[in-house]
Amino acid sequence: DTEVTQTPKHLVMGMTNKKSLKCEQHMGHRAMYWYKQKAKKPPELMFVYSYEKLSINESVPSRFSPECPNSSLLNLHLHALQPEDSALYLCASSQGLRTYEQYFGPGTRLTVT
Amino acid sequence: AQSVTQLGSHVSVSEGALVLLRCNYSSSVPPYLFWYVQYPNQGLQLLLKYTSAATLVKGINGFEAEFKKSETSFHLTKPSAHMSDAAEYFCAVSDKGSSNTGKLIFGQGTTLQVKP
Predict the structure, then answer these.
(1) Are A42 and B101 within 8 A, CB to CB?
(2) Mind listing the pLDDT tens digit of every residue in chain A (113 residues)?
(3) Are B74 and B7 in contact (CB under 8 A)?
(4) In degrees rounded to 5, what are phi and psi of residue B78?
(5) Quick check: A96 and B36 CB within 8 A?
(6) Element containing residue B73 per DSSP (H, E)
(7) Sign of the torsion angle spanned by Cα atoms A58, A60, A62, A63
(8) Which chain A residue's Cα is nearest to B34?
């Protein structure tokens, strides 16, 4: 099973709202990733967690706050977003940082109004 | 720094024709290379990967790619296109620098259109 699940599928939020995106995998992977993808562009890496510890933060604004409660779950907390943050947010996982094939979830389509 | 170039942002083929999507990379060390496919409003699906074993790699849905070190290329091919192959395709290279971050470097993507 190479499934990564993400909820919700769609999210519309105002600029003053607080919301969270959730990602889950049951493949025993120890590395998890958040990406942001704009239309017709490749995914842009935001955060990397390895063994539940934040490994990479690609200079992402503090209005995005990641959390890894356990090895299967990854959250992205959103607060005071801007309209330009509207995008497809993808979660991915891999066995580890040295195992480079990443498996992606279906994404959350976020619209900030 | 590693980089990936996908030649042709848009490729159009007829159903049943050969599919060729081009990918060139730059890397100071032998990389790991990947092709991903993305259908509209979906996540990325791994098509195939090269990890320094056989240079001709077979993937899902009839796709294959050949690693050519001398040409720093990893082109994706399929002998006969199907309507369901219409999608966005991304080539990616691993960041195998000293940090071993697991970071993937993506190309800009190629949109494959399949005409009936």
Answers:
(1) no
(2) 569 999 999 999 999 899 999 999 999 999 999 999 999 899 999 999 999 999 888 889 999 999 999 999 999 999 999 999 999 999 999 988 876 789 999 999 999 99
(3) no
(4) -150, 130
(5) no
(6) strand B73-78
(7) negative
(8) A101
